[in-house]
Design goal:
With about 250 residues, the chain is of the alpha/beta class. The chain has one domain: Creatininase (Rossmann fold, 3-Layer(aba) Sandwich). The protein is about 35% helix and about 10% strand. The chain contains 6 helices and 4 strands; from the N terminus they run αβαβαβαβαα.
Length: about 250
């Protein structure tokens, strides 16, 4: 079910155990070859595919395209909300849904920079309603729900980068008209210098091109595989949420 297409009496009559998904993405630079709206395009495609298979069980709110992307502001075209403002915006929207009586809420994320404020928003909201025993408040990122054992051979990357093999491949399926020349782009290492720490950094600290990963390895065939795996992972996650008894 799509919240944007319902009338308010229909929302009022929905069972309150219906899981509600608030999708969050971004509008930010994606290197020399992908459009600024890449994260939102990719997450919307996964939402559309998932909604077709879960339309009677899950309520999907409209995708929120503005994200926490301050680390990309060195690259023109990026639009971003201040981290604290973004956190409060997410928490406010989740609080709205609690006001309507829903108690299974999921932030479904499509941008790495949203992870920290998204997790904090869920944490703060739960503490504000700490005496309730009927709440399930979750934040998850779509690519983290795919079964890695199902990945076929042939991928250079084993994790999501930025404007990388994975994202470029999916955009070649969804919007090839928006993909620029990528075949000669150099690979930018994904490995972080301090893997056990969270480092305060900007994207420019890691890449002059704007991408991180290996976009030259992308293909439409890989894109179809990724979209299937990521959609299946999201669907299974949401089915678990739906089955959860509170």
């Amino acid at each position: 079910m799509k919240l944007a297409e319902l009338r308010w009496p229909a929302v009022k009559d929905l069972p309150k155990e219906t899981p509600v998904v608030l999708p969050i993405a971004a509008h930010e630079q994606h290197g020399h070859h992908l459009p600024l709206h890449t994260d939102s395009i990719l997450l919307q495609a996964i939402l559309d595919r998932a909604e077709l298979r879960l339309s009677e069980r899950i309520l999907f709110a409209p995708l929120q395209w503005l994200g926490n992307s301050h680390h990309h502001l060195d690259f023109p075209g990026t639009l971003s909300a201040e981290p604290r403002l973004y956190l409060d915006l997410l928490r406010c929207q989740l609080e709205n849904l609690l006001t309507f009586g829903f108690h299974k809420l999921v932030l479904l994320n499509g941008h790495g920079g949203n992870r920290v404020p998204g997790a904090q928003a869920v944490f703060e909201l739960r503490q504000a309603h700490r005496h309730r025993t009927d709440l399930l408040l979750l934040m998850t990122t779509y690519w983290e729900n795919a079964s890695k054992s199902d990945f076929p051979d042939g991928f250079l990357q084993s994790s999501m980068g930025h404007a990388c093999e994975w994202e470029t491949s999916m955009m070649l399926v969804l919007r090839p008209d928006l993909v620029g020349e990528y075949g000669a782009l150099p690979a930018v290492p994904q490995a972080e210098a301090f893997p056990t720490a969270i480092q305060g950094e900007t994207t420019k600290d890691r890449t002059v091109f704007g991408h991180i990963g290996a976009p030259a390895a992308a293909s439409p065939e890989k894109g179809e595989t990724l979209l299937r795996l990521f959609t299946d992972g999201v669907i299974e996650f949401l089915r678990q949420v739906d089955r959860r008894k509170l």
